[in-house]
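How a chain folds remains the central question behind the approach discussed here. The record that follows shows the chain in one-letter code together with its fold in token form:
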Amino acid sequence: MSETDAPTPKTSWLGRLRSGLGRSSSKLTENLAVLSRRPLDDELLEEIEDALIASDLGPAMAARITAKLAAEKYDRQVTDMDVKRLVADEVEAVMTKVAKPLDITAFPRPHTILVVGVNGSGKTTTIAKLAHLYQEQDYRVMLAAGDTFRAAAVEQLKVWGDRLGVEVISGPVGGDAASLAFDALTKAWELGSDVLIIDTAGRLQNKQGLMDELAKIKRVLKRRMESAPHDVVLVLDATTGQNALTQIDVFKEVAGVTGLTMTKLDGTARGGVLVAAAERSALPVHAIGVGEKLGDLRPFDPRAFAEALAGISDEEEQT
């Protein structure tokens, strides 16, 4: 068993989340160095707002936090912990509205999930991690290698399938992705699979071509099962920062995205972009990833994320 497919204890998830968001929380702390324990005035409020925007939280969140600071602390001293606690509270309030586990609800089965995202976003690995998550819940999972133009993506998914003991439906390189999706859904139906997760191409260079391909996949799935696909999940790479917001706009248009998953939060200081993404799109946030192991993708917990992003530990929260 390799390091990436070794099981990861559930009990360590909070610690891994805090560690994974360490760069982002450190960036927030550094940006809040403008606080010099002087009374809060208009100039300091503006500096704090700039610091929050620089932490990728987005202008709307930054404005809301500084407005609350002004209402509660004006002409009084404010510390970085005051701001961090307010960041955590406001981030939790926003993210609670969009936190939604990617539950398996379709009946009859299989619950079909179409996974979209640009090449390099961690899409294929995220599919494997989702499959693992569903296996932990005793669901029978099947995968479909629908990124047919990238041989490497097909092979990578097959490798993950072998590790997980999950069947991967694939076809010839350059084959028709919609036909593959139809065949996979038919086989998943016949074998009684609970979940079918379908990989897709992520070539944004030809947006119209991608739109046509994804529309065709959705159309042929509905021929086999009217309610499919039940979810269209966009995988975002946290290291791309504000570019993730553009990807949301594009994939909402080309694929009818119904929810988000963000990966590589452990590799960036720009974890705040998930907050900006949620505010801008209002799309559900299903899960986040903070590492390479199979257990490093978990359903999104808004409070845990907010505290980790703000850099607040249990001990600090109690003080």
